Fold:
Amino acid sequence: MAQETTSFEEYDKKAYESQVAALRLNGSAVVTNLKNMKRTFISVSLEGSNVAASIDGKLIYDKDDKRGYFCDQIDVELSIGSPYKIGIDSPQTTMGSESTSTSSQWQLDVNAGTFGPVPTTGVSGGIVIGSSFSKGLQDWKVVNTSTNDIIRHSYRMAASERAAYEQPSDLVDQTAGGQLQGCPLFHVPDISVANMPLLTTGIFVSDRLQDRSRVNLQVKVTGHFVRVEKTFEFFVVDIETLRKPWTWQYSVPVTIPAAD
Structure:
């Protein structure tokens, strides 16, 4: 068995008026090359990555009639290209919870030449590849639309302080009590402002053993930032430039070691 780990990290900032957003991208790609199994596996994890709508944790507009710029969606895509296909990826689609777990792990039985999910009773033998961790994602949900070739995870804000959230106009309090107060805007979750964690993991696998070479892991992260403004006794949702999403895209060289 031959293994090699490629770690990568990026930090990029962008200003919206006087508010500064940032992506902190941390990740690793672990290649496991097994001659007996005639397979090459690449386990990818973005553990430690996050997107901050504001690096100081403060919104430029944070009043009852104007709130922003907060993050309400982050789209993540990972791909390598032929001959690698997605064997497993995580997290799966969720409906929002206080803590979301991600687990993309396989147990490889080198002698039998098989691979599959790690038994819930524990590892009895073989090699375990991949990663598993959990983070708090209160008031957010994950929509998994991965294909055979591309890992696609969309992290979406699911609730404000007092109501479900699907679109920016949902921030407007239109309850009877809210109407008496002029329909103020709800506050957004803290992680929609500062350091929303990314939980994406996955394992790519080739259908044949790969020789020593280099592939490029494509990483694409798109943040959607929103400003909501309510005018007079009604409201106007003003997405402005921030439904013209800000996309970070990187190509990470990953070395495939020669199989032992």
Observations:
- The chain has a mean pLDDT of 88.
- The first helix runs from residue 176 to 180.
- Helices lie at 176-180.
